[in-house]
Amino acid sequence: MAESLYDRTLALAGLFQAARLVQTLAREGRADERAFAASVNSLFTFEAGSVADVYGGIDGVAMGLKLIEEKLNSRGESLDFELARYAVSLIQIETQLRRLPSMQEAVRDGLKTIQDQMKFFAEAESGNAVHPKLSEKIGELYQQTLSTLTPRIMVNGENDQLSNPLVAARVRTALFAGIRSAFLWQQKGGRRWHLLIFRRRIAQAAAELIHQTAAP
Q1: CA 160, CA 212: separation in Å to the nearest integer?
Q2: Residue 123 — very low, low, confident or very high, per pLDDT cuts 50/70/90?
Q3: Which of 34, 122, 154, 201 sits a CA distance of 20 to 30 A from 129?
């Protein structure tokens, strides 16, 4: 597999994974904690030796890889238009962000500040759980920066879930992680038209990467 395709597929998996996390959180108030933790941690990986390292290894985007294999290899029967809408919206917001160096700097500085603040809570972390305070702080940074870009991402879900402050913060955190993955995807040469022209090739790359994961 060409390294460029490998890198783009992993970053795209991060984007699709974040979109799925937004879906399940907004609808059910829950998310796969292992996938959520990997997506959150990608926000704080400022220097990485490889795209896989951004997610703590290929296993970190196992959910996203499976989504790519299923959705991009589909003839229509298993398409998820809401998931696709989230993915496209995340790419659109990232495109706006790339044109605003000052906001990029604000986002990076904000994440570094959060990283320093959360060191106090590090010992309270257990397993793959993400500390609620971390989601809260990331959600606040999202509201102050990325949520001001247009077109705004409209999240569909249950009112009971979206009105819950913790769930809302986790939704914003997942959106933040999706934009980070979109940024990485574009950085590695990903383009929106690739999703149409090269969809089968990307799905095959995802299938090959899945075989390298330890996730069931």
Answers
A1: 39
A2: very low
A3: 154
